[in-house]
Amino acid sequence: MSTTGPAGPHEAFAELGRIRLSEVSLDDVLTRVAHFARATIGNVDDASVTLVGPVGARTAAYTSPRARELDDWQYENEGGPCLEASASTMTVLVRHTTREDRWPRYIARATEAGVRSLLSVGLPVQEAVTGALNMYSFRDDAFDDHAITVAQNFAGYAAVALANAQSYDSTATLARQMREAMAHRATIEQAKGILMAEHRCTPKEAFARLSRLSQDANRKLRDVAAALVADASRPR
Questions:
Q1: N or C: which end of the chain has fewer CB within 10 A?
Q2: Which residues pair with 234 in a beta bridge?
Q3: pLDDT digits over 209-228, tens only?
């Protein structure tokens, strides 16, 4: 996926709107969002996207290794604008790192790296995952009201991509589980048929026999059924 920036925010949003979210990976979409934010929002020297899930925070997209390192320092110190924005889904602004008294350990490292302003926009909560679009600047008071509004629009698009990806994952998981259930059901029905033929019994009696075999062997019903079908399929 190309990361060449468009001429301005409107062109960026138009290009983002042409992306088929079902055909592109989430990380690729978020990378495009990060690069467009850096290219079209004034005074942004680096940008990244943080995702926070059950196993912790990670940087899903970044415009340079420096941006990823600035994020990592927040994760290491368990505090910083991107983590607060992710937790609150609000916009967190640091106008001057040299005058900031929040997150002292992180701010000290960011200041040493040359960062003077930070802006993190939280992504709306989507089930178990939250996140933030992060922008770093080497200028004091780099983000005015217009820049914040544009950044929030970029974050909104990232949130849509995140929701779409989670919806797709949920649908794919459900479809897989249904396929597995149907396969297990077919195997169990085959095993019942074998028992009905061998013992000349009803479907209900065959299922009861299969259940007893499962209990006696301390194995799952589907595994006992599969073994029975496999045994019946072997050449005599």
A1: C
A2: none
A3: 888 888 888 888 788 888 88
> Quick one: average pLDDT of 19-48?
83
User: How would DSSP label each residue in 50-70?
Assistant: EEEETTEEEEEEESSHHHHHH
Q: What is the DSSP letter of 20?
A: -
CA distance 52 to 88: 12
pTM listed for this prediction: 0.66
Go through the domains of the chain in sequence order and give each one's CATH number: 9-172 (3.30.450.40), 178-233 (1.10.10.10)
In Å, what is the CA distance from 217 to each residue of 96, 132, 223, 224, 228?
69, 51, 10, 8, 13
The answer to whether 93 and 85 have CB atoms below 8 angstroms apart is no
In angstroms, the CA 148 to CA 119 distance is 8
Higher-confidence position of 230 and 114: 114
Sequence-ordered strand ranges (E) for 56-150: 56-62, 91-94, 117-126, 129-137
Q: How far apart (Å, rounded) are the C-alpha atoms in residues 222 and 183? A: 10
Question: Containing H/E element for 47?
Answer: strand 46-53
Both structure tokens of 180: 């597995």
